[in-house]
Amino acid sequence: MAEALQTVRELSGKVADIVGSGRVFTDGDMLDKYGANAGCSQTGRPDMVAQVFTRDQVQALVRLANEWRVPVVPRSSVTGFYGGSVPEQGGIIIDMSGMKKILRVDAKNRWALFEPGVTYGELQAELAGKGMTALLPLAPHPDKSAITSCLEREPKLTPKHHLDETIMTMELVLPTGGFFHTGSMAVSQEPAEKVQAASHTDLCNFMGPGLDWFRLLPGSLGAYAIVTAMNMKIAIKPTVQKLVFFGFKNLQDAVEPWYYLLRKLIGDECLLLNSRYLALLLAKDSEDISRLQAALPAYTIVLNLTAGEHRPEEKMAYLEKAVQDASRIFQLQPLETLPHAQDAASALLAIFGKPWADGAEYWKWRGRGASREVFFLTQLQRAPEFLRELESAAAAQGYPVCDMGLYLQPKQNGRAFYMEAGFPYSPDDPADKARAERVQDGASRLLVDKGAFFYRVYGPWTELVYGRTGNLQKTLQRIKHTLDPNNILNPGKLGF
Q: Distance from the CA of 197 to the CA of which of 16, 238, 311, 439 falls in 20 to 30 A?
C-alpha cells in the first residue's frame, strides 16, 4: 500500500510538470466526483485528475502514460453519463472541459471547429451572431460537451438525411502520443484552426485517410484516440418557424401519418413524445408534472415548420398545405397549442434551440432526481411492439408504467428511428434505484431478443450486444491493439 501511494505521488509530480501543480487533483472527494456518472451505477476511482487546456498537454500526458504504463481516461463533459468516462483500472483522468476555444466558423461551408470543452450553449452563443445554429439533441444537459455528444451518437432533432451525421473532420491525439487529422484536414499538419487557410480546403470531406475514422471513433468511449478538435456541421438559422402538434391515443395510430409527413420532407425538428416526457419538458415546476401529464395526449408528434434561406413565404405555404393534406387523409386535428399548456409552442421552440437551463434540475430527472434509460434503433412500424416489451419489463418489477418516458426521433427521413424509454427513480432510495436498474436490464434483454439494435454500446449493454456479434469484438480488439499497443486509453471499455 505504501509503495502504491509513493508511486502515485511520484507520478502526480510528473503530471504537475506538464499541466501545473494547481491542475492535478488526488484528494478523495475529487476522485469520487470524477469516478461517478449520472444514469448508471458504474463507479471507478482514478488515481488522479489532470486538467488540461492545450493539445500539447494532452499529448504529453499520453506519452507519460505510455512510459509508466498507466491508464488515461479522456473526459470533456463536467457531468458524465452512461459510464463512458468512469475509469475501470484507475490511472489518470484527462479533464478537457477547460478547452473552450471555438477555433473557426465557416458559414459558407456550414461547419464550426471547436475544442472538447465547448458546450452546446457556448457554441450557440457564438453562432447566433453569424445567423447560424448548431444541430442539437433534445434538451441536452447544460454541462454536456458538444464533441462528447457527437461521439456518443446522440440523435439530433432534425430528421434530414444530410444532417444525420454531423461530424466532419477531427484532430486526434493517438494512443502513442502523436497527433493525427482525419478527412480533408489530413492534408496538413498545421494546428486544426490553420489547416483551411494553409491548404485551401473546405474541410468538408469526412472520409479517411486509411481507416474509416468517421465511424470508428463514435461510440468507442475514448478507447482508440482522444479528440482535441472537431469541425461539426451547422445550419442556417430559420427566420420563420411554426410548431404543429398531432395528438394520438395510442402509438400505433401515429405510424402511417408520421411516415407520410417524413416522405414529404416536412419539418426541421420532428419527434414524438409520450405525455410523461412532454410534461417533464413543459411543466413550470415539479409539482405540476402529474397534472400536466394527465391533460396531454398520450403520444404527441411535434413538428417544427421552418423557412428562411430562400423564398420563405412560399416554402411555409407549401409546408402548411402538406400538413393540411396529411390531416385530411388521416382525419387528424393539427394543433398549434396543447391542453393546459397554452405556451407549449413557444416553450418547445426555446428548448429546441439550446441546452436545458443551467442550474435547473435536468428535465429527465425532474421530481425524482435520476433516471435509467434504454435506447436503440428500430423501424417505426415496430415501435408499438417494442413499447409493449418496455411496459412488460416495467410491470414485471412493479414499476408504474405511467412514470415511463418515451421519445422517438426519426433519422435519415425515417429510414430508422431512435427510440428511448426513461425510468425515473429516487437516487436516495436504494430500493427504488435497484428497481429501476432491474427494469433497465430486463427491458434490454427482452428488446435485444426481439431485434432492437443497440447502437450505443455502453456498460450495461456491452456483454449483451457483443455476445451476439460473432467476430466483431475480436476485430475491434485487433484495431485497438494496433493503435494502442500498451492498452493505456480507457482500458476495459467495450470489453477491451
A: 238
Distance CA 351, CA 345 (A): 10
Are 102-236 and 240-450 equal in CATH topology?
no
Question: Any alpha helices (H) in 129-237, and if so which ranges?
Answer: 146-151, 195-199, 213-216
Q: Are 37 and 86 in contact (CB under 8 A)?
A: yes
Averaged pLDDT score across all residues of the chain: 92
| Cα 395 to Cα 188: distance, rounded to the nearest angstrom | 57
Q: Residue 495 — pLDDT band, cuts 50, 70, 90?
A: low
**What does the pLDDT read at residue 2?**
42
DSSP structure string for 374-417: EEEEE-GGGHHHHHHHHHHHHHHTT--GGG-EEEEEEEGGGTEE
CATH number belonging to the domain at 240-450, selected among 3.40.50.11030, 3.40.462.10, 3.40.50.2300, 3.40.50.880:
3.40.462.10
Dihedral angle sign, alpha carbons of residues 97, 32, 354, 309 = positive
Cell of 54: 492545450
When pLDDT is cut at 50, 70 and 90, the band that residue 1 belongs to is: very low
Note the CATH number of domain 102-236. 3.30.465.10
Predicted structure pTM score = 0.94
Coil/strand/helix, residue 58 = helix
Q: Tell me if the domain spanning 2-97 has CATH number 3.30.360.10.
A: no
Distance CA 184, CA 209 (A): 8
DSSP conformation class of 45: -
Domain residue ranges of the chain, discontinuous segments joined by +: 2-97, 102-236, 240-450
**C-alpha cell belonging to residue 398:** 412493479
Highest mean pLDDT among 13-17, 35-39, 306-310: 13-17
Instruction: Please give the Cα distance from 179 to 62 (Å, whole number).
Output: 11
Q: What sections of 234-311 are H helices per DSSP?
A: 255-263, 275-282, 289-295
**Cα gap 170→180, rounded to integer Å:** 8
The amino acid occupying position 28 is G
Determine the average pLDDT of the residues in 326-348: 94
Residues 377-398: what's their mean pLDDT? 98
Q: pLDDT value at position 6?
A: 63
* Angle, CA of 473, 478 and 483, to the nearest 5°: 125
Please state, in angstroms and rounded to a whole number, the distance separating the CA atoms of residues 296 and 197: 52
All cell numbers assigned to 82: 452512461
Q: What pLDDT shows up at residue 150?
A: 95
